[in-house]
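Now for a sample.
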Amino acid sequence: MLWLPFEAMAQTSNPLRDSLKVASERLSYYPDSIDLRLRKASWYMQLEEWQSAKNEYDIVLRHNPANVAALYYRAYANERLGRYKFARLDYQNLLVLVPGNFEARLGLALLNEKDKHFTEALDGINQLVDVYPDSAVAWAARAGMENGRGMLELAEYDYGKAIGLSPNNNDFILSRADIRIKLGKFQDAIQDLDRLVRLGTPRAALKEWYAKALGKKKK
């Protein structure tokens, strides 16, 4: 699976910098090494240095235009840089090489939503759910889009499907609780919050949501 949560991986610790330095030094001896170039780009991605990462992927793709990993991650870097047109092209080119690729289709749908291509985004995510009905990520991604558009009942349903497939995913459960609060389904929201507590989330960390669900004003 190609997707990686870069935000969760991002660090500024010395080990990452050291790894980047090693990759750079080795590339000075083996400038044509695609593997070393990809490693160097991955360190930049983890450091959220998107432009530097994109530059490395540019080099890889000049030598090997069909490199799937470079296309996918450059699309991500381009998106983070606000280069939506180029990110879309990378996803589309990847889908030519690997038709139906889940990560590329998901990335393209989310990009279209971010770039306000709303019809294309919804069509894309609907197709993804149809093709991958057992993917909790697909259901949750559609729920997120629906929530953003105020389609709360549909979002609640889709988060329910995602939770059914991934019962211990705290993000999905909290997102559904938040939607249920918006819908005025306070008891259902409390059940979700209690579930998070049972899964190990400190009750104090959910104070804001409990206050809303119980109809109390935030102090």
User: Anything to note?
Assistant: DSSP finds 13 helices and no strands in the chain. Confidence is low (pLDDT under 50) at residues 3-13. The CA atoms of residues 42 and 53 lie 7 Å apart. Residues 14-29 form the longest helix (16 residues).
